[in-house]
From TrEMBL, chains A, B, C, D:
Gene3D superfamilies: Aldolase class I. One of its GO terms (biological process) is gluconeogenesis. Keywords: Cytoplasm, Gluconeogenesis, Glycolysis, Isomerase. This is Triosephosphate isomerase. One of its GO terms (molecular function) is triose-phosphate isomerase activity. Homotetramer; dimer of dimers. It holds the Pfam family TIM. Its EC number is 5.3.1.1. One of its GO terms (cellular component) is cytoplasm. The gene is tpiA. Belongs to the triosephosphate isomerase family.
């Protein structure tokens, strides 16, 4: 299982979370990544944690003021990127373009989507992984694996029907080790989470609880 | 073969094109549709031609000022709609939403895309048809079926791998009967065209040339 | 006072509302316009009511599939258009472009905005009118003129400071004649309203109540 | 005169340009800023150069994956931000929102726009500065101050008519000291430039040429 902690634009200390994630990953052997604001990528990467961008733009080098260039996030230390998060939905053609952009510097990719049909569509574009996150559960207290286990199973089936090599993650409401185990049992290869760690009083303890049952 | 004439925002007379399309369709037995501006849908539908919208919004009845409501275009006489044309690219989630919207009043749907990967993605969302239109050939003098026959064949294969029930159209640069025959031979179920008819001095003659070899 | 009834994508009968608006306008002498879906413009215009588009695209004749061409809405009978409604926010450069587009066929224009600063910005672009509609009050039961009279007065002042020839409308929550009188007394030249008429059991009675005190 | 070097998504070394800008600024006394990719902000700021963001999102702390949070760019060392560059056009309401966001951590702001009408609109929103950049001249070989001096003078007048405290910059095609002097004489308080420095073989020499006549 891969655990990706999305810091969004939360008022957390990205270095504190990154150091906690690096420590927990080392101690548990579970792969834990952290996705901070672009401006925080280099500082987060310096902690040694696996560092992800929250987004890369569907552009090449050139006249693209305000874009997030894949090469720039890679130079800052990112090794992967989220694409099409529900808070940053992209045009279909731009998801395709952002995947091309991420491939140039060798960033790993996870394309987010709302439901199994969109997961199949995302998988058809050839990312490393897709992530199903029902928008109505994001930020809530109930894990997708508990509230809507079928959507996770259907997403796993939908992605496999298109391309068996694409991993499937799930997200929305995940905050405990039981949630992660449930996601694992439903066939997910990883989980996306955010507030459960980023807003925790003790991010390291929150992460230890998360990976403990694995 | 289905022939869909997209009037875009061209300075043509939509009624003249619609009447020409209705006449040619009746005489040839070839299915010819016309997609005008939303404001022209009812006048075009009154000619008896098969009438398509250029777009419907991913919304239900409600507070959506400036949207193009699927029910409104159906009430005006449209029986189908284009979605995600390269001049009106949508977010992945909104293509899904526009397909849901079109299904409510029973509109036929064709989702446009740039390349075979995006065609597979579009097919995964369950439209009636997908249409591959390489952006660099749109509006040009060379037909996609001549300039890039492989992209049409690859699109046909990509859609079939995801869902065999989804028709595949192609577009970009199509203006002659030979172009339509070439598209047919590459496996396409229809063609999208625009300037070749909409900007012709004699739209009826242009359409007659198009369907003559079929 | 100008009264503009925005039908949004509501499940109302646009012809019923248009006929009611035409009747009330004739009987009362108050200028009442109706803004339906683009696909309904010609049917609404045929009732004789003053007909407005909900939006026009910042484009000229050309390759703009899915756009709302100013000439097309004018040909369908519209004599004015809303621009930048809070449910259809545009880029600053596109508000400017939509105003240029509306000017070609001589459409009247009202640019909507959230607050007095944005009203001043909108007025600087040279529309016929601006309309202040606080997003948090749109669709609610309390009129902007009651809930936030200062925002209307400030909008009137802000527009006048930039260009005294620009009319100022207000909207959000307006449903009674008292609301219209209050708007008038705060310096507004017109009101935008929607659900209060479009969702009324008897649109004509609702409009008669609205204009009665004028 | 303020000289702001926008690195866009160019394949330049941001540190080399930043060090050159810091050196030239120190030696000449001319205020020179550098606007790199968000991921490069902290490394650029460490050179001691005045550091600007290319964009900030119209959001507060919260669930905004993929946004560019004003506080994050300020923490990384930025002291100012561009908003609404022609390659990153924003909705009017979002320019207003980005200005509010930039104000929280005290970032200086410059809002870009295409023409004098939009400059007046931008000035009405209360930024520290506005910048007129005719899109057709951006990236070209001819300076706006030479190709279209009237647009600069008109922008200066338009901003002053709305708010005299707002500075006016100009950009597009500026690459020599003569261009900067011409801008100064037309009433501009600063210049935006990009490829002339970012793509120069020797950025420091390019900057020295630029500020030499001042």
């Amino acid at each position: 299982m891969f655990v990706l902690v999305n810091l969004k634009a939360y008022p957390c200390d990205p270095i504190e979370v990154a150091e906690a994630a690096a420590t927990v990953s080392d101690e548990s052997g579970v792969d834990v990544g952290v996705a901070p604001q672009a401006a925080d990528l280099s500082a987060v990467a310096e902690t040694g944690v696996e560092t992800w961008a929250q987004h890369v733009s569907p552009v090449e080098h050139g006249s693209h003021t305000g874009s997030t260039l894949a090469e720039a996030v890679a130079d800052a230390g990112a090794t992967g990127t989220m694409i099409n998060h529900s808070e940053n939905r992209l045009k279909l053609a731009d998801i395709d373009g952002s995947l091309d952009a991420a491939a140039r510097p060798g960033l790993e990719t996870v394309v987010c989507a709302n439901n199994p049909e969109q997961i199949a569509a995302a998988a058809a574009l050839g990312p490393d992984a897709v992530a199903v996150e029902p928008p109505e559960l994001i930020g809530g207290d109930v894990s997708v694996a508990t509230a809507d286990p079928e959507i996770v199973e259907d997403a796993v089936d939908a992605a496999a029907a298109v391309d068996e090599s694409v991993d499937v993650y799930c997200g929305a409401g995940i905050s405990t080790g039981e949630d992660v185990v449930a996601a694992d049992e439903l066939g997910a290869d990883g989980v996306l989470l955010a507030s459960g760690v980023a807003k925790a009083d003790d991010p390291q303890a929150a992460l230890e609880d998360l990976v403990e049952p694995l």
